[in-house]
UniProtKB/TrEMBL annotation:
<dbReference type="Pfam" id="PF02136">
    <property type="entry name" value="NTF2"/>
</dbReference>
<keyword id="KW-0653">Protein transport</keyword>
<dbReference type="GO" id="GO:0005737">
    <property type="term" value="C:cytoplasm"/>
</dbReference>
<protein>
    <recommendedName>
        <fullName>NTF2-related export protein</fullName>
    </recommendedName>
</protein>
<comment type="function">
    <text>Has a role in nuclear-cytoplasmic transport of proteins and mRNAs.</text>
</comment>
<keyword id="KW-0539">Nucleus</keyword>
<keyword id="KW-0963">Cytoplasm</keyword>
<keyword id="KW-0813">Transport</keyword>
<dbReference type="InterPro" id="IPR045875">
    <property type="entry name" value="NTF2"/>
</dbReference>
<feature type="domain" description="NTF2">
    <location>
        <begin position="16"/>
        <end position="132"/>
    </location>
</feature>
<dbReference type="GO" id="GO:0015031">
    <property type="term" value="P:protein transport"/>
</dbReference>
<dbReference type="InterPro" id="IPR018222">
    <property type="entry name" value="Nuclear_transport_factor_2_euk"/>
</dbReference>
<dbReference type="InterPro" id="IPR002075">
    <property type="entry name" value="NTF2_dom"/>
</dbReference>
<dbReference type="GO" id="GO:0051028">
    <property type="term" value="P:mRNA transport"/>
</dbReference>
<dbReference type="GO" id="GO:0006913">
    <property type="term" value="P:nucleocytoplasmic transport"/>
</dbReference>
<dbReference type="GO" id="GO:0005634">
    <property type="term" value="C:nucleus"/>
</dbReference>
Length: 138
């Protein structure tokens, strides 16, 4: 693969990441009841170490969380080689920012990693790992 093609793929991944995260966080913060539509039926969410499998269970889990407001501060993305993912267009997205929950109104830093795959012209989350960035106490 030429360097030009690789750079174009990275640019596409970054553009997609900007659009996808804009939609995702708007939905989580304002229309959470629709969020499961962004996940594959077999999608995986790992939220602060709690694993949830399947978009229906993910939806229930997310609905049980307090209302939120996410502010994205950094974003990065890269394409995943299609021969590693059954020839499906797939991107890895890293997002960091602050989240405020209604129950405490304290800004908390978070890091979130998405693996998204193109399915019938729409982006779907295959895997989502969310982690609040709190100090580690050993």
């Amino acid at each position: 693969m030429s360097t030009e093609v690789v750079l174009k793929n990275v640019d596409n991944a970054c553009e997609t990441a900007e659009e996808f995260t804009r939609v995702f966080y708007k939905q989580v913060d304002n229309s959470r009841h629709l969020t499961s539509k962004l996940y594959l039926d077999t999608g995986l969410l790992v939220w602060n170490g709690n694993g949830i499998n399947g978009n229906d269970k993910i939806q229930k889990f997310l609905m049980d969380l307090p209302g939120s407001n996410h502010v994205l501060k950094t974003l990065d993305a890269q394409p995943i080689s299609e021969n590693l993912v059954s020839n499906k267009l797939t991107y890895l997205i890293q997002a960091c920012g602050d989240v405020t929950y209604q129950n405490d109104n304290i800004k908390k830093p978070f890091q979130q990693t998405f693996l998204i795959v193109a399915v019938d012209g729409k982006w779907k989350i295959a895997s989502d790992c969310f982690r609040l960035q709190v100090p580690y106490n050993s």
